[in-house]
Design brief:
With 263 residues, the chain is mainly alpha-helical. It has one domain (12-255). It is built from 8 helices and no strands. The chain has helices at 20-43, 47-68, 74-98, 103-125, 136-163, 167-189, 193-216, 228-262. Helix 7 (193-216) packs antiparallel against helix 8. It is globular and about 65 Å long. The relative contact order is 0.15. It holds the Pfam family DUF347. The chain crosses the membrane at residues 46-65, 72-91, 103-124, 140-160, 166-186, 193-212, 224-245. Keywords: Membrane, Transmembrane, Transmembrane helix. InterPro entries: DUF347.
Length: 263
């Protein structure tokens, strides 16, 4: 029987409810992951390696705080998601731009790695549901899965937009249509909810990446020319506003629950 502190359950699920706001913030975070990585690497001139080290260190700190908490805290959770989005993008960029690994190879490798994470998670826990992230081990599997969904999404998005020359607009349409198709299949064909969630979660990464590239890239490259600085700033502001609103709502529900319990 497992009794270690590492597997001691938190007081509640450590992942937010899957609502429309969840998906909105997720897509915004993935877009920031794409534009912020480019901003730090190119605009600030930090370079790919320095950017990777700095963002990797920040992610480790955010995850330490996230794991230390006993319940879901919106600000900490979504900060970790934004940072892991940036790091996932940088992993792919380091392999493709730094080491010259073809995008079809990184896409294939990350697919295999993500499948291995899900398989191992299921073998140990017998579930992949995000509604039961109530032990440290499940939380570890969850964040590993999230990391490699971002890395895979970056590689797959770049593969379609650049290697296959679909362009940012068409790539965005393709991934948006794929997500809509998953939603319709789930709604009318009643496929497994956990499977539908993770497929949509993976697809939102290249959707966000395509959106970020479309908005930030120069007009001559098929983008809207807004630049990585402006795009990152606008999306971060929207994320902060949504997270603050979510935090206020969550605090109100918890206070109401405490009041009802005391009565």
């Amino acid at each position: 029987m497992t009794t270690t502190a590492a597997l001691r359950p938190p007081t509640s699920n450590k992942v937010p409810q899957v609502t429309a706001v969840f998906w909105i913030i997720k897509v915004l975070a993935t877009t920031v992951g794409e534009t912020a990585a480019d901003f730090l690497n190119v605009q600030l001139g930090l370079g790919l390696q320095v950017t990777s080290v700095v963002m990797g260190a920040l992610l480790i700190v955010a995850l330490i705080v996230q794991f230390a908490l006993r319940r879901y805290v919106p600000a900490v959770y979504w900060l970790a998601v934004v940072l892991i989005s940036v790091v996932g993008t940088l992993i792919t960029d380091n392999l493709t731009d730094g080491l010259g690994v073809p995008l079809w190879v990184t896409t294939s490798v990350f697919t295999v790695v993500l499948a291995a994470v899900f398989t191992t998670w299921y073998v140990f826990e017998r579930t992949l549901s995000i509604h039961s992230i109530v032990t440290r081990r499940r939380e570890t599997f969850y964040w590993l899965a999230v990391l490699f969904t971002f890395a895979l999404g970056t590689a797959a998005g770049d593969l379609l937009a650049e290697s296959l020359n679909l362009g940012y607009v068409l790539s965005l349409v393709v991934f948006a249509a794929a997500i809509a198709a998953i939603g319709l299949i789930y709604r009318f064909a009643h496929i497994n909810a956990i499977l539908a969630f993770w497929i949509a979660y993976i697809l939102t990464r290249p959707l966000g990446a395509s959106t970020g590239d479309l908005l930030s890239q120069d007009l001559k490259n098929g983008g809207a020319g807004l630049g990585t600085t402006f795009t990152s700033l606008i999306f971060l502001i929207v994320i902060v506003v949504l997270v603050v609103v979510q935090s206020i709502q969550l605090r109100g529900r918890r206070e109401a629950g405490d009041t009802a319990a005391e009565a």
